[in-house]
Amino acid sequence: MLCTVMIPTRGRKEHLLSLIENIFSSVSDPKNIEIVFRCDEDDIETIDFLQQNKFDNVRFLVGQRGLGYSGLHVYYNEICESSDAQWFFLFNDDATLNKTNWDIYLEKINDAVVIQPMTTNGRGWQSGNIFPLMHRKIYETLGHFSVCNMNDCYVSNVASRVNLEKRVDFIEVVHVRHAWHDKTAQESASFQSNNFKIFTDCMEFNLPLDVEKLKNSELVNQNLPMAYILNPNHPGLRPTQP
Question: Which residue spans within the chain are E strands per DSSP?
């Protein structure tokens, strides 16, 4: 399997069909990717939907809710453990992908890196790696996808410290957060505003350990490009609207 698209989800069963269709329509060959949802065991409606609607290359895991957003990294790690894919793509159930046939270009990257896709919030292209893709070799070297709950920030920080984070312009994620006003969105916003110190404490302790693992690996000896850019005129490479 080329890529596992990892999606923890809760209370959004009515959106899952369009999400699945969107992700598979964004690639050249749907057989190149799989979607793996991680559901809480008390989210019966979501579990029932996924059990009753069978899709090729779509799986779901069920587990304890645990700490909710405070333990979101646990969900991504569980998905990675269940997958044999070459790439692990952190994704959200409130995001979509533009059709760029991104699997064709991802398949050509043999380097073990963390990829930074283009991401727009609907108002412009954003800086930062909000939806990172991690190569399996990095995952195996670290022993996990992330150990802190703000997974995108943590993964980006680990990879960038050893020059293993690379931008691409062939994956375009659309993430319009203000369009969602359900309970899950409210919980996410509340968590991020009230628990940032928990994340910074976690990162302060774990980041040096993970950076050291990579520094001591053969991965830092790769001959890597500055980025994987197909179109230098892509609007996301300039501070303009998409």
Answer: 3-9, 33-40, 58-63, 87-90, 96-97, 114-120, 133-135, 165-174
